[in-house]
Every structure is written in structure tokens, then in C-alpha cells.
Write a structure and sequence with these properties.
The complex is a heterodimer of chains A (245) and B (441). With 245 residues, chain A is α/β, with parallel strands linked by helices. Helix content of chain A is 30%, strand content 29%. In chain B, helix 1 packs across helix 13 and helix 2 packs across helix 13. The chains are: A alpha/beta (245), B alpha+beta (441).
């Protein structure tokens, strides 16, 4: 079943008096629980596509469906709520809140919107995540007291804390050395297996691309390759099973 | 919202120097305004208090008698003390003590020098408080045992070039309006207590009555000194109501007489148009005489408010620029917050909370600084001989900040600070998360 579907999506940015077409009609389907790499050189449209999937940017044309629902026409409040409930974000520059410590940074998304879990459940869940990303001894430290790899681990835990269906990671290893970068991708893959969260990450590092099960390659705003474990993948998602099928 | 407020509070510590400078600017403005308010707050009570000693009372009663065949002459006199004393007792006025004075405006002449001056005839044996308030520079109160003794201020004595023991000629009109002359002996020279302290000289009432043509036991004004100055108006009303039953009284609370700057002046103007027979009394208070002091205080408070607003317009420009800068500094953070689910309104609130905490912190610090400054300033004894005597409290500058005024100042600052931060906050809230995340600082 497709959790993300893009149908002939285009994105045009105004750049002074001219317009730049960053994405030129992209269609693909991402299955639930996938561990996907969107690969391509700089300027190929990776970040733009991730932003549109992440509902922080709008498509100029085409359709973006998240969890089977079209996102066009949603108001800012609804988009924000959807980002909070369905999506998790990992950024290239970690983007942690500097005045909050590790534990508080991870807790932060849980304090937004309506809380559905008890305080004890919340504490246990955050502690489990902190243990999972290996930062138990650092949980009271502020971001500026952590290394790049540690910060990205915090960002991973923060992205997962609301138990989102999809985690989007834009070049999560770009600011890390290659060994740490690989550890971060391995950590993401481990969590993908354990929690069955769909991970979509962009990268231009060929070594990291190949860790993914599903690879979508872009060049100049177009999909050049869409394969899962060496096999081509259909652009459109299969229709959802109806009751009785 | 608690989380957003918590982050806003912590954000203040990110750029400590900047927060401290902005807070200090707010604190400085509040301190200045609180000091002015404090000074103005104590001004009325100090002036009233000091004047009450100079005029010997908080509530006053004076009598005006019509004489002459056509009842066309007026004499300021109280001949029946018993009826007033009884009314005072019946009205339950909490009098600390009662003074009886006669006074006139006349010319003091000494060796060719002449000064027009007010002379109060007092019972110095009973008016002990006058001795406490009027500090003698030369001479002694014992000299007042001379029936013709007089105490003049340094300024008046200087104008006449008189020394203690000198005999001063006085020329005046009697209560009935006839010319008269007499002779005072200078018993003492008091320190010049500023523009109002040299207002009058003090002599024995018996001799002043003799000069005015009043009989012994008669006087012009009864002064009632109360335990508590705040009871002045209530006491005056009680006395007025009591006297109204058996005596002729001039209306109290006349305010609309053309050209009158005080209620007392208005009362006098209205009296000039009235006709009556016998003695008619007027009951008035220190507040009726000193209404202009309240006008001065109102003017000071308005000036303080204008200063507050001007200072804060300057501070507001700083706050607006700072928050605009803060928005650009934290632009990716704003993008991140929006991405993880923070609503626009919450981003706006975060900035406004930050501004509010800054305003309240700065304002409270300003009030504390003002209180410390007040304590330090009021510690110094400027002495009873200071030219500022009339606004001092026992020789010290004193301050009184009405709590509602302090709270009002904090609210004004909070509102102005929020207004200053509003537009940067709104711009931050309106940021497109994708644009914010793309921006390179």
C-alpha cells in the first residue's frame, strides 16, 4: 500500500524576474515501511521533493498524496497538524533547539498539540528512544555540548518521538564524517526495521544510497531511476484493497 | 503554550548582553518615572503637612461680621469662641489641638526701609509645634515673652536690615478699616524656608488684636490640627453640618467662580456678592487653599507620563530592531519548529512572550532601583533650614509611590513592548517554513 504518492509533480521557483523549474513532472509511489533513498547531484530537486512530501512546500502542479489523502488545498493549520502527527524530520544541520537539552529537544514535539499519552508513558518512551540512539549519558546536555553525530542522533529521536508514519531526512549525513554518516544511516535502518517507520532520505553519497531498499534517482528535476532491490518500481501506487477482496 | 513560554524565557539568556542592555533601558525609564511619581506622590502630603504647621491647622473656621448703618462694612472676627468650641466637640472632629489666630497685612518700617508683610498673631505658649517647625537662626523663643515681640524670616529681616532687639514700626489697617500704627521688638530671625516660608512673621496674638482693634479673647481664624491629615475633608464636612444647625455659614465647595484658582478664592468671591446680618462663618480646609499644589502634582504626573512614553518610544525602536534581528538569527529554528508542528500563532506568541518577560523583568528591576534610589536620597537630612523645607518631611526628601501607579507603569511598558515586538513576531509567524529552512545565516 502506498503511503506517499507523487503524481506528475512540478515545482517552479521565481528567481528574480525568471522562473526556475526545480521539479519537472515527477511521479513515484513509496510503500509503507520502505527505507528509501532519493539520490542525485546538487540541484537535481531532492530537497524540493522532500519538502513537498514533508508538507512544508507546495507543488506548483500535480498531486502529493500522504497516507492516501491529497494534500492540495489544505490550510496552514491543517498542514502543520499533519506534519506533527504523520511526519518526522531530520535535517542536514540537525536543527536542534539550542536552549533545550537532549531530553527536552526530543520531548518538544510531544508538547505540541493534544497529548494522547500519560506522563509516565511519555517519559518511558523518550528514555527508550534516548537509549536506542545511544545518548543516555548525554540526555541533560545542551546541543552545543554534543558532537555532530550525537546531534543527529538527537534529531533522529526527535523525529521519531511522535511515532510518525514517515520520517524525512534531508542529507542527514552531509555534515558528518563518512564513518559517523554510515552509523547514522545504520541507526535509521535499524529503527526502520524495529518500528516499521517509513524512512525517506536524500543523499548524493553513492555509498550511502546503496544501503536503501528503494532508490529513486533524480537528475535535473526528473526521475532517472526508480528501483527496489534492483527491480524497477511502478510510478503509481497500487489501488488500496477494498473490503471483501 | 507553557512550552512556548518556557522556550521564550530561555531565549532571553541566549544573547545575555543584548537582553541585559534592553532590560536596562526599560529599567532606567521605569526608574526615572517611578522616582518622579514617588516625588509627586509625597509632594502633596509634605506640602500640606508643612503648610498645616505654618497655617496652624488642617480645617479652619473664620467669621465675617457685617457692620455699619447700611451693613456695608465687613470685619473678620470671631467673637464667640464658646459656640465654635461646642460645635467642634459635638461634630466629633478628632482635633489634636486647636489654634486661634489673628493676622493682618501691614508695612514693617525700620530706618527708612519698608517691607509689606503678613503678620500672624499666635498664642506661642500653646503653639509649641510652631517652635519645632520654625528654626531660629538668631534670637530665642524666650524673647517672645515680650508682648510686642515678633519673629521674622531671614529674608525679611535682611530686607529691613534689622537685628534681634531692634524696634520695628508697623503700619496697618484695623479690622474695621482704620489706619493704625504700632511697634514690634525683633525677638528672633528664623531660617528662610523657601518661597513660602518667608510668607509671614509671627507675633503675640494679644498685641496683634490690640493693633487690629479686637478685644481680648477675640480672634480671626480658628485652626484645627487633626491626628490624620487624610481626615481633613470628612472632619470639615462634619463640622460644617454641625454648625449649619445654629449659625450662618458660607457655602462650601464653591468652585466655579470666574477667575478663582482655588476653592478658597471662589468662596471669597462669592461672599463679596452676598448680604447678611451679624456674623457669618466660613469653614474651609488646607486643600481649599492648596488646590494649586494638586494642580502642580497633576502636572508633574503628566510630565512623568510623557517622559515614560517618550523614553519608551526610543526603547521601542530598539526593541523592534532587536526582534527583527532576532527573527533573522533564528530563522532556521523557526523553520524547524514549524516543520515539527508548531503553529503560526505559537511562533508569534514565542516572540511576544520573550518581549513580555523582558518588559516585566526590566520594569520590576526599574521599580527596585527606584526604591533603592529613594531610600538613599531620603537618607540625607537636608535640614529644616533648607530652601526646600516646604516639600521636605522632617528635613528629608520623601517619596510615595501609589501602588496603582507603579502597576500602571508596568502595564504601559508591557503594552508598549508588546506593540514594539508585534510586527517582528508577526513576520516570524508568517515565514514560509520551506523558505526559513532554506535560508543561510
Amino acid at each position: 500500500m502506498g503511503i506517499v504518492e507523487l503524481k506528475d509533480v512540478r515545482k517552479v521557483y521565481p528567481l528574480g524576474k525568471v522562473e526556475v523549474e526545480a521539479v519537472k513532472g515527477v511521479s513515484f509511489c513509496i510503500e509503507k515501511g520502505d527505507f528509501i533513498s532519493i539520490a542525485g547531484p546538487s540541484g537535481s530537486g531532492k530537497t524540493t521533493i522532500l519538502n513537498m512530501i514533508g508538507l512544508i512546500d507546495h507543488a506548483t502542479a500535480g498531486e502529493v498524496h500522504i497516507d492516501g489523502k491529497p494534500t492540495a488545498g489544505l490550510k496552514d493549520r491543517e498542514l502543520t497538524r499533519m506534519r506533527h502527527e504523520v511526519l518526522g524530520f531530520i535535517f542536514q544541520s540537525f536543527n536542534l533547539i539550542p536552549v533545550l537539552n537532549v531530553w527536552e529537544n526530543i520531548e518538544f514535539p510531544l508538547l505540541l498539540g493534544k497529548t494522547r499519552i500519560t506522563k509516565a508513558e511519555k517519559n518511558d518512551w523518550i528514555d527508550w528512544l534516548i537509549a536506542e540512539v545511544g545518548l543516555v549519558e548525554w540526555k541533560r546536555h545542551k546541543p552545543n555540548e554534543l558532537s555532530g553525530g550525537q546531534r543527529q542522533r538527537v534529531a533522529i529521536a526527535r523525529a521519531l518521538v511522535t511515532k510518525p508514519q514517515i520520517v524525512l531526512a534531508d542529507e542527514p549525513t552531509a555534515n558528518l564524517d563518512s564513518a559517523t554518516g554510515e552509523q547514522i544511516i545504520e541507526l535509521m535502518k535499524k529503527i526502520n526495521r524495529e518500528l516499521e517507520t517509513t524512512f525517506i532520505f536524500s543523499t548524493h553519497d553513492a555509498k550511502i544510497v546503496n544501503i536503501a531498499d528503494h532508490i529513486i534517482r533524480l537528475r535535473d528535476g526528473l526521475v532517472t531511476e526508480n528501483v527496489r532491490r534492483g527491480e524497477d518500481v511502478a510510478e503509481a501506487c497500487a489501488p488500496a484493497n477494498t473490503a471483501g477482496d | 503554550m507553557k512550552t512556548i513560554a518556557n522556550i521564550a524565557f530561555r531565549n532571553l539568556s541566549r544573547q545575555k548582553k543584548r537582553s541585559v542592555l534592553l532590560g536596562a533601558a526599560i529599567a532606567f525609564g521605569v526608574m526615572i518615572v517611578t522616582l518622579i511619581n514617588g516625588f509627586a506622590g509625597a509632594f502633596v502630603s509634605n506640602v500640606s503637612d508643612n503648610f498645616s504647621y505654618l497655617l496652624a491647622g488642617h480645617v479652619f473656621v473664620s467669621g465675617v461680621e457685617k457692620t455699619g448703618a447700611k451693613l456695608d462694612k465687613e470685619i473678620e472676627v470671631i467673637r464667640d469662641d464658646a459656640v465654635l468650641t461646642a460645635a467642634l466637640k459635638d461634630a466629633g472632629v478628632p482635633a489634636k489641638y486647636v489654634t486661634r489666630r489673628s493676622d493682618f497685612d501691614g508695612s514693617l518700617i525700620f530706618e527708612g526701609k519698608k517691607v509689606f508683610h503678613s503678620i500672624a498673631g499666635t498664642d506661642l505658649a500653646n503653639e509649641r509645634f510652631l517652635r519645632d517647625r520654625l528654626v531660629l537662626k538668631e534670637g530665642s523663643w524666650d524673647n517672645m515673652k515680650d508682648p510686642r515681640a515678633i519673629v521674622l524670616s531671614d529674608k525679611i529681616a535682611g530686607k529691613l536690615n534689622v537685628q534681634v532687639g531692634d524696634r520695628i514700626l508697623v503700619s496697618l489697617k484695623t479690622a474695621a478699616g482704620q489706619n493704625n500704627a504700632g511697634e514690634f521688638v525683633l525677638a528672633g530671625i528664623s531660617f528662610d524656608t523657601g518661597i513660602l516660608g518667608s510668607l509671614m512673621g509671627y507675633a503675640n496674638i494679644a498685641y496683634v488684636n490690640e493693633l487690629l482693634g479686637l478685644a481680648s479673647g477675640e480672634y480671626m481664624t480658628m485652626g484645627i490640627m487633626l491626628d490624620d491629615i487624610s481626615r481633613t475633608e470628612r472632619s470639615a464636612t462634619a463640622l460644617y453640618d454641625r454648625m449649619k444647625a445654629s449659625l450662618q455659614l458660607f457655602d462650601r465647595g464653591v468652585k466655579d467662580e470666574k477667575g478663582a484658582t482655588t476653592p478658597f478664592m471662589a468662596m471669597m468671591r462669592k461672599q463679596n456678592r452676598e448680604q447678611w446680618n451679624g456674623v457669618k462663618y466660613r469653614v474651609f480646609t488646607l486643600n481649599d487653599i492648596l488646590a494649586q499644589v494638586q494642580q502642580i502634582v497633576d502636572a508633574i504626573n503628566i510630565a512623568a507620563f510623557v517622559i515614560l512614553v517618550v523614553l519608551f518610544f526610543i526603547v521601542m525602536v530598539g526593541i523592534t530592531n532587536t526582534f527583527r534581528m532576532v527573527m533573522y538569527e533564528r530563522i532556521r529554528e523557526i523553520g524547524t519548529m514549524r516543520a515539527v508542528g508548531v503553529q503560526r500563532g505559537e511562533i508569534r506568541s514565542m516572540f511576544l512572550y520573550e518581549a513580555l518577560f523582558l518588559a516585566i523583568g526590566g520594569a520590576l528591576a526599574g521599580i527596585v532601583l527606584a526604591l533603592v534610589a529613594m531610600a538613599v536620597i531620603s537618607f540625607f537630612n537636608l535640614g529644616m533650614d533648607s530652601p526646600l523645607f516646604i516639600i521636605l518631611k522632617n528635613g528629608h526628601l520623601s517619596f510615595r509611590v501609589p501602588p496603582f501607579q507603579a502597576v500602571g507603569n508596568v502595564l504601559v511598558i508591557a503594552v508598549l513592548t508588546l506593540a514594539a515586538a508585534f510586527f517582528p513576531a508577526r513576520n516570524a509567524a508568517r515565514l514560509d517554513p520551506a523558505v526559513a529552512l532554506r535560508t543561510l545565516k
